Structures are given as C-alpha cells and as structure tokens.
Amino acid sequence: MANQHTLSKDDLRKILDNSFDEIFVVNRSGTVVYVNDACERHYGLKPSEVIGKTVHHLVSEGYYSPVLAPIVFRDKKQVTLEQKTHLGKKLVVTATPVLDERGEVELIVMNSRDITQIEQLRQDLANTNKLVERYKIEVQELRQQQINCSECYTFRSKKMRLCMETGQRVAPVNSTILLLGESGTGKSIFAKNIHKMSQRSDGPFITINCAAIPEQLMESELFGYRPGAFTGADKTGKVGLVELAHGGTLFLDEVGEIPLILQAKLLQLIQEHKYLPIGAKEDKEIDVRIIAATNRDLSQLVEQGTFREDLYYRLDVIEIEIPPLREREEDIIPLLNYFLNKYDSEYNVSHQFGHECLDILLYYTWPGNVREMEHLVERLVVTVPETVLQQKHLPKKFHEMATAPEKITTSFSSTIHFSSSGNSLKEKEEDLIIQLYKKLKSSYKVAETLKISQSKVSRVVRKHLANHPID
Ligand SMILES: Nc1ncnc2c1ncn2[C@@H]1O[C@H](COP(=O)(O)OP(=O)(O)OP(=O)(O)O)[C@@H](O)[C@H]1O
C-alpha cells in the first residue's frame, strides 16, 4: 500500500471491495458505474455483470425492489429505504446524491447494509417472547391446577385466586396465619392447602376444633399430661394434640372458642414454641406452625373481654379472609361440577345438571356456603335415579324460588307489568328482568332477550327471589 497520506486508485478499490456494506454508484443516466464485491452476496451477480446496466433494467429483471434512484433524481435529497433482493436478502439502502456545480445530480452513491440476520433475530426474539408469554400462561395454569388438585381445591373467581396467591406466598414462611370467613367457606381445606404448599408438607397436619372439645378436657387434649398428673389420669400419661403436630402444622379451628384460661398457654406456645404439659416440671419445646381460623369477630371478643388482646395480635400476623360463596358466583358452577363428579364416582353413578336446575342453584345465596352445596349435591346424587338433575329434584325451598307469584300468561308483551308507576329507572329495569325471568325461567334466555349480561340477570334475580335459606 502507498504511504500513509496518499492512496492509490488500487488502494481505494481494495478498501471499497472489502467494505461489508454494498457500495453501488449510478450516474446521471441511471447506469451503474461502480459496485463493490458485496453485490455478489446480495444479488448473486459479479460486479462486472452489474456495471454498465441501468437500475431500471436490474429492477425489471427482478434482482431487487423497490428502486431508489428516480426518487433521488427527483428530490435531490438523501433517501433511506428497505429493499428486498431476489436472493431473499433484506437491505437497508441509503442513497446519497452527488450534485454538480449546477446543482444537478451527477452521481448517486448507495450504501446497502444486509439486515436479513438482524431481521431474523428480531423475528426470533418476537417468537421467543410469544413463547415466553405462552409458557407463562401454561405455568400459571399448571400452578392453578396444582392448587386445585392439592386437596381438590376448586375455584375460578378472582377473589379466591387472590386468597390462594396470598396463601402460596406465605406458605413457605413460618408466620402464624389467621383465616377469617363464614362457616363452610372452606377455611379448613384452605389451611390444609397451605400446609401442603409449605416445607412442612411431609410433617403432620393436626386440626383442633376448639369449639368441639369440652372446656374441662381441652387442656389435657391439647397439651397432654404426665403419668399420674391428676386423679383419674391415664397411668401412662397422654400425648397432647400439640405434640402430635411436631414438625408440621397445628390448625386451630374456631379459635375464638378457646377458653380464656388456656389462652395464656397458647400465647406461650406461639411466642416461645414451648408449653407445659399438665403435671410436668419443665416446658416442652415444639416446632409447629400455627394456622388459626374463626368465623367470629375476634376484635369484638377482645372488647368483650373473652379473648386476650395479645393473643389476638399474635394470631393476626397474616390475615386471609375467605369470601362467602354468594360473593364469588364464578365459583358456583365449578364447585357444583366438582362435587357432582366426586359423589358420582364415589357412588358409582352418573348425573348431570339440567339447565333450569343450574340456573336455580346459581341464584341461590348459599347461606351455608360450600359445605351446604356439598351436602346438597351428595343428597341429589344419592336420591335421584335419573341422569339429569332437574328443578323438581331440589328441596322445597328451591321450588319456591323458581315459582312466579303471579300467573304468567301467554305473550311476552301482555305479561310485563311494572309494579308501581313511581319507580326509578333501575327499579323498573329490575322489575322487567324479574317478570321476564319468571316467564322464561332461564337467566340465559332473559339476558339474550334483553341483550344484557347473564351475570346482571343473575344478580337481580338473586336479589329479588333467592334469599330463602334451604332446609
Ligand atoms: N374450594 C373448595 N373446593 C373443594 N371443596 C371445598 C372448597 N371449599 C370448601 N370445600 C369443602 O366444603 C366443606 C366445608 O369446608 P371447610 O370445612 O373447609 O369450611 P370451614 O370454613 O372450615 O367451615 P367451619 O368454619 O364451619 O369450620 C368441606 O368438605 C370442604 O372440603
């Protein structure tokens, strides 16, 4: 190569030919006057096959498109565009005009960079992102299934999903959990699931129903006693339920019922992981995680003086409230089907819910929550010989819900009567929904007729017709 300051024509050619980007020069008549070796990669043509041809010829032969030169000749400005070649390459081409002294385009220098690979990478990345999104959904579904499968926990509602997510988050730590909720909402099964999701899952899960053990027996049942601890005691002593839970989870159901005199002992157990069995001289150490549940308002019990405030705060480290079934109607059908399958396979029979029957069960407010539903479904499975469970198979209270108080006559228009002229629009709308429901006996049909959502119909019907507890 020539000295550092001057480059020969050959040097310049070498530099241009070794440029990764294509350099493509056309003169004022659109004829290619120079192209470097990159053109072989882009078009599969040697420079000698391209030089001397016009851009129009190359484009009409289909080597690449679109053509940039005419735009640059017209605008006399730099233009950047994407081009595709017949070899499937994607190029980003910047065409720069070189003007003569009269301001006319003398040459156009085009610089083309192959972005096929970048494009491919971009495409791959987009596909990967799509895959990641899909996997995220699959993982979420698997996690949900896992939750559902462990202890057969069934739910679809957002409210229950949030509860479960909190449960999952706190399962691995040892903090005490307080489960709140009406009777039958599923607090015990929820507690079992937390245990299953915790590192203690191989250990025992011991339930103590504080309301079921007579007060005078509770201390010995819970904490056990040493041999000969008191008159009438078993000579070998007794292991308490608390000790049985060692290495696992102790579930204190209906904790609000625990007698005041035992609350101090429970407090010590939670705070120090120690307790004194009856008749023992030394405390016993224990490794348990405590989950407590109540359907009572513990703060009110504290105010009334029947529950220790310090114990309340100790229990209430993480509070999870399980909503009643009437506040999560999306769970009703999945739970009904879950129990139907469960009892059908238990009793080796086969049933399905008829539409009207399902409709009625959807509007029902379930004062006894999931427990009430489970008992009802078991009863239906056992007592109904037909395959399709119908309205007539339901207990009496459900029939009342479905019966219209006024006689509904033939045509739709003749049967809709607003009950009072002074009603608000909302009341009138509800009135219409109710009357139509009494006629059509299906929320789906009402929703379809009035072009409103089925859940709205369901809400209104429940409000007006379904507040009868069942037997
Ligand atoms: N989401 C659910 N999926 C499946 N079964 C459920 C679900 N929720 C509750 N159950 C079932 O409903 C019944 C009542 O639930 P559970 O005993 O857990 O309620 P609870 O809130 O602890 O009641 P209580 O306050 O009266 O002790 C149980 O048989 C339980 O297995």
TrEMBL record:
Residues 8-54 form the PAS domain. PANTHER family: C4-DICARBOXYLATE TRANSPORT TRANSCRIPTIONAL REGULATORY PROTEIN DCTD, TRANSCRIPTIONAL REGULATORY PROTEIN. It is an enzyme of class 2 (transferase). GO terms for molecular function: ATP binding; transferase activity. Residues 75-127 form the PAC domain. Residues 153-382 form the Sigma-54 factor interaction domain. GO terms for biological process: regulation of DNA-templated transcription. CDD domains: AAA, PAS. This is Nif-specific regulatory protein. Residues 118-145 form a coiled coil. Pfam families: AAA_lid_14, PAS_4, Sigma54_activat. PROSITE patterns: PAC, PAS, SIGMA54_INTERACT_1, SIGMA54_INTERACT_2, SIGMA54_INTERACT_4. It comes from the Bacteria. Its EC number is 2.7.3.-. Signal peptide: none annotated. It comes from Acididesulfobacillus acetoxydans. Keywords: ATP-binding, Coiled coil, Nucleotide-binding, Transferase.
